[in-house]
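Action item from last week, closing it out:
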Amino acid sequence: MIEVEGISKIFKKAESKKQKIYRTAPKTTFHALDRVSFSCQPGRIYTLLGPNGAGKTTALRIIASMLKPSEGTVKVAGIDINKDPRQARSQLGFLTGSTGLYDRLTPRETLKYFGQLHRVEPDVAQKRIDELIERLDIGDFADRRVGKLSMGQTQRVSIARTLMHDPQVIIFDEPTNGLDILASRTIIDWIRECRTIGKTIIFSTHIMGEVSLLSDDLGVIHKGKLCYNDTFENFKAEHGEHTLEDAFISILEGAE
């Protein structure tokens, strides 16, 4: 389970060279998030929807303890990320559409390395590696260097890396960005399977087709504020006469 309570994130804007020399303007701040609260339940997919720059990735990085909130709290599987970020991360997997992998390692070596990082027992790790290689159809290139793989193959390795320590909570931050339809379908199917086995899943996207395919619950974020938070069924019922795109735009316009 993920519990997000009133998180805000304030960044300081950097001064330009001209401002520094002539002191023409004081330092200003940017509110990336403003008191955002929501929860994600086991066995359900919570979709975080919003335009580019809305604050989705900032929120997810705070949940993953990659950023500290300016205020508010987050609990991952009951663990407060501010009090025990390492323990929280042990329960969490994080996948983005721009995940970096070391080009000179093979997929098999990558999984072994991340198993060691997460302190997975060697015999358990080997079993897990074999299972993930088979389930994600990595076998044909499991011993080829990552730098030689296609984008779709690399993303499959990234999924396996994310799941290597069998996390209870999984964050997918626009994981299909830039992928072709077959690679995207592999990820969509895997997200559904994670839901089936009871994982807590938060999924960020700006692709409306993925929203309808995956969502159990829906949050819409705009200019750092959560302007919708309910089940996807209720969302459809409230906007039944509109397309998803029209309903989404209507919510954004109402939040202005």
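Closing note: DSSP finds ten helices and ten strands in the chain.
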